[in-house]
Task: inverse folding
């Protein structure tokens, strides 16, 4: 099953090029050039992972990451940046980012990170489902 990815970056040419390269690797890619639009899109679609630019004019990547995690704590987010700093990297990890990659990231590295993100999400969803089943069974007076 193809990885379902939401790619968010304000650089339209970059988004289109990266999305085409990801699609050529059999990924199901949706794109947005605005964090605010992407958050609305996130409300109506499910994704295995989000690839998110750290610096955007309408909302920075750290704020977008925080809001994505509020909506779905299990979502796996990979941040991309052309201006990585240790401080931003630490903030991103504290907010729950899976990784922070510098642009231009190799497509092979990004593909590996996306596959890892999908695997992480599946483990989290499975654990959550098992806990819900245990809660339901434990709550019944059989």
Result:
């Amino acid at each position: 099953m193809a990885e379902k990815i939401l790619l968010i970056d304000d650089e339209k040419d970059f988004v289109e090029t990266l999305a085409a390269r990801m699609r050529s690797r059999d990924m199901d890619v949706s794109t947005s050039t605005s964090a605010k639009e992407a958050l609305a899109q996130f409300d109506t679609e499910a994704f295995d992972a989000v690839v998110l630019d750290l610096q955007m004019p309408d909302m920075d990547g750290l704020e977008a990451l925080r809001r994505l995690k509020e909506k779905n704590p299990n979502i796996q987010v990979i941040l991309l940046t052309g201006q990585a700093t240790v401080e931003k990297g630490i903030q991103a990890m504290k907010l729950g980012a899976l990784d922070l990659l510098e642009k231009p990231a190799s497509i092979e590295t990004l593909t590996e990170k996306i596959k890892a993100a999908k695997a992480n999400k599946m483990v989290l969803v499975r654990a959550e489902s098992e806990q819900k089943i245990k809660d339901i069974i434990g709550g019944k007076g059989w």
